[in-house]
Design goal:
The complex is a heterodimer. By secondary structure, chain A is an alpha+beta fold. Chain A is 17% helix and 29% strand. Chain B is an alpha+beta fold. In chain B, the strands form three sheets. Chain B has a seven-stranded mixed β-barrel. Chain B has a four-stranded antiparallel β-sheet with strand order 1-2-4-3, covered by helices on one side. In chain B, strands 8-11 form a two-stranded antiparallel sheet. The longest helix of chain B is centred in the first third of the chain and has 16 residues. Chain B is elongated and about 65 Å long. The chains are: A alpha+beta, B alpha+beta. Chains A and B meet through strand 14, strand 18 and helix 5 of A and strand 2, strand 3, strand 4 and helix 2 of B.
Chain lengths: 334, 237
Amino acid sequence: MSRIHVVKPGMFTTVQDLGRPGWQRHGVTPGGAVDAQALRLANVLVGNAEGAAGLEITLVGPTLRFAEASLIAICGAESDVAAEGRRLPAWRPVRLEQGAELVFGAIRTGCRTYLAVAGGIAVPRVLGGRGTHLSAGFGGLEGRTLRTGDVLKSGPGSAWAKRLAGALAGGGTFSAARWEVGTGARPSYAAAPTVRVMRGPQWDWFNAGVQERFLRERFTVMPRSDRMGQRLAPPGPGLTGETLREMVSEGVATGTVQVPPDGQPIVLLADRQTIGGYPKIAVVASVDLPMLAQLRPGDTVGFRAVPVAEAQELWLAAERQFATVKQGIALHTA
Amino acid sequence: MKIAPLGDAAVVVTLGNTVDAATVAAGQALVNALEAKPLPGLIECAPANASVTVYYDPVRIPGNGGQPPYERVCRWIEDRAAAAEPGGHAAGRLLTIPVCYGGEWGPDLEAVGAAHGLSVEEVVSLHRGAEYFVSAVGFTPGFPYLGGLPERLHTPRRKTPRTRVPAGTVAIGGTQTGIYPFETPGGWNLIGRTPWRLFDPFARPPALFQVGDRVRFQSVTPAGFQSLQCQSPLPSE
């Protein structure tokens, strides 16, 4: 257990977990980490349950002082993280000594990185989740982003985490494990990805020309993108067609690509609304959501259609691989 | 009934193409039937207007001779829909919501009247004279979309949405009326405000309104608004 002092909050840092499913009929979005895979891996690296709460760090990271020795891991977008001027590695467990100050610089490639602490960030569950619901102001730390002067607490770490932290003791301000999650086992990120999508429930509402453009063109991520969605600009005119009509609002899912009347698609992310009235041209395959989570304004993205069965097979294969990685991590001691 | 995939972890079951009480009731009946015999891997069912969205975890859907999880979910929904009782859903609760109409509480009340050639009193009388049904809860936590708005009050959304609509504001957007649970941006026409709290994450259920509820509005004075302010009917856990 440790107290973590927020010396600088960073640009947009929130407590997140894997969300609070089950309340969508009441209008509550599941929320949680935008790049859930990165948070899951970070948690596994410090001996936590996959869904423990950690910090989601966006573009410019915080400075955090750890009042007690702690086991941590950082996964996600590539960023410069240092303690006492020494660069701290990502994708592996790291023991921080008492009083260590962890300084996150700007994220270099990607958009979001995750900090997991052994024992998880100890905030109360609200509607079953510990993540921050910003628009309704609950969950996480008082339902808001971190501020200077906040003090977070971590819960009790697992027996595995205690053994690993013990084995790593004595290396100065921090000591990193000698092993890491290999690149093949990390989420695949790309600065200009082509992500797989399935045709959405209103795919047929768009004329053939718009359908063809959607699958061929590259879209640019716009600055107003946030945890709710990536707003995309097509290279030419908006994706509107003469077959567009009024629709009755219906449920949406994370990864849904909806097209408002201005023809600029929005890919819905973790803090999406629960229902929407814009036609849904496509839905991003779950296995490719991490790529989308890491896009920042100015990046480009393209879409490639796959059948639902293929997207599910890819997801099942990714989950089998994750289970293997998890087993491998559990076998390590230092 | 039409089932369409919404990506690899959800399907939308469409039951009609209009927002009416019968279709909403059919959605409720389907949700009841699905939840009576849930498929392992089901995450949740969320009814909205003329459809029900079913969220599932493809990893936990039982394999069935190589059948993809999506196919398995569709078969299960078809089976359960056949078992759903069309009239089997009990009529929703009737909630009577206190509203202070006009003034600072409803700055668009006069404009709504002017758009239809109605006096402020006529707008209020029409709005509180009707019985509504909750067709969906969403947009923000606890926001009720109410069907049954008298046709003479149908009013298009404002061209420029407001950046801040106060919590509790009763508004008209197109053919529906609704209430903003939180201070959020909003493009609907604001006609009044309720002192009641609509959403409390620590209450069970957390939202005052459930799909299928029937709703009436009762006009209160500004003084009545103040005195009702601290009374939230949301049951605590």
